[in-house]
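Hi R.,

As promised, here are both runs. First protein below:
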Amino acid sequence: MVRIGNIVIPESELVERFVRSAGPGGQNVNKVSTAVELRFDIAQSPSLPEPVRARLLARRDRRITADGVLVINAQTLRTQDRNREDARERLAAFIGQSLHAPKKRIPTRPTRGSKERRLAGKRERGTIKQGRSRTDWD
């Protein structure tokens, strides 16, 4: 069971597969399946509220398949149990980012003072450049 805020995801919705890790490690890596591939079906999960599901599916993340399944691979740690915990923590963090709706941006307009300062700076820069081109040696 994974708990994120007030959302509880039961074990039955999580699919774990244990595979061999990639990379260095010698005999241990070649013999023991310590890496965890955690799959969570976002699109079909009854545990997620509809707004959270929509925000998760709208995210452009390479870990989400076209069917709406989130795939998390955990293989950095040495034991299967620690990789399982790591995968579940990453799942909780991923879902936790979508719990709250992002604030709507309120478009603002530049103040009169900021417009005047910008134009004054442009004028000043223009006079500097004009001064470089004058060649009155008379």
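And here is the second one, sequence first, then its structure tokens:
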Amino acid sequence: MSRRSDKANRGAQTSFPRFFTKQLLAFLLLAFLVVVVDFFLYAAIAYSESENNFNDGTPITTVRAVDAGLAQEDGTYALSPEAGDVLAEQEAWALLVDATGAVVWEHGVPADVPRSFTPADTAMAAHYGTLADRPAFFWSRDDGLLVVGFPKDTYWHMTMALPESTIRNLPLYVLLLFAVDLAIFFVAYFVSRRRTQRAVAPILGALDNLSEGRPSTLRLKGDLADVGERITEASALLEQKDAARANWIRGVSHDIRTPLSMIMGYADAVAHDERVPEDVRAQAAVIRAQGLRIADLVTDLNTASRLDYDMQPLDLERIHLARTLRSVVAAHANDGLDEAHPIELEVDDDAADAVVLGDERLVTRAVENVLANARLHNEGGCSVSVRLSARPTRKTPGGGRDADASPAAAAAAEPAGFAVIRVADDGGGISREDLAALEARLARSRTAASASGCAVGSPSSTATAEHGLGLVLVDRIARAHGGSIALDGTPGEGFTVEISLPLA
């Protein structure tokens, strides 16, 4: 797995808990708002009920009105008209029981209501708040017990007796309920987070694979089944497009090689035929040089295409860099390309035995591309120096490496150091603006789906298009081996490319 995937996974591991924590906090805030709303709603309902049922016209006000309106004159009880109206409005009735249990006064009492009471009858009626199955309310007077009754099913009387210990422990019970509710919230949060992470983890892995060009197949169940099918379909479509692109590039490359070989062969024959005029031989040499350039571009295009999305299988082996560089420089000289671009090789003593784990074919290609870059941008000639040196491992925070992880880097432990291949020329160099644009293009190519890393029409496309795929391919080869490249140059003072590869 690449370093980018590791970062994505670490980001997912931290973002999911943060996401669910926010959801839990939002839920708790919502629950708090619900409690606040309920409290105010309860207060409004209580106020409304108090206004409607506990002011004028309620049992207590009716009883008090009858008590105030009932008076005895000359041994006879009389009820004031106002109190009588109150009873009439409530369809209520009233009676007065003296100390002997006899009814000494009544007003509108139903026929089935008793007219005499024993102490036990009075106690039971007062306890249950009913008399003859009608709600009744009792009021103690100096001359007896006033009873005010109402129609059936108008009031419900409730008697409750609680132990004192229950009242004392009531706050603890409330706290216990709150703690249990809070525990339920947290359990629901952790269960939900675990289930969601378990469900989303395959999706994250599939998206990582897609971002790195690897096919992904998801077989999800439940609500995410449709998401899995869509990712699988997208993966299949991308795989078809990549295969079609690779096949197209291979086909075009194959079709170009045959006529290009013939052109280069005839051009080489004309360039070395002394019977041909000098100017024609020079033109044939130009044709041959441009043919070599086209051949290099075709090779670069094929290699860059295979390296896209880490699709290029690396043939890992132990590479003796000094020997490989000598072979590259010798081939340069044998091709007759050193007349205008003489090249020299220098190997530091500490790098004479430098060995890296990688694909020798690709490493060779990277060095050849840097040399070709020097020739291409200095047609008038320049001297090229190749130097091999070694440096200790450059530690990064957290023990990371300089470049993104790769198959070669994953196959080896932390390297003992880096081998540095430095290719420098003393030609025309490059301006700081163009150097910055070239470095930006390399950075884009590390995340772009195409090999160029340069959008057509962008400000940097003109400044860096002349470099072709060469340095982009060098950068990809270095990163595929767990290394990196560095560029430097000054106008009129040459251009330098450093390729750093981890030592085996």
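A quick note on the second one: The two ends are 20 Å apart (CA to CA). Let me know what you think.

Best,
J.
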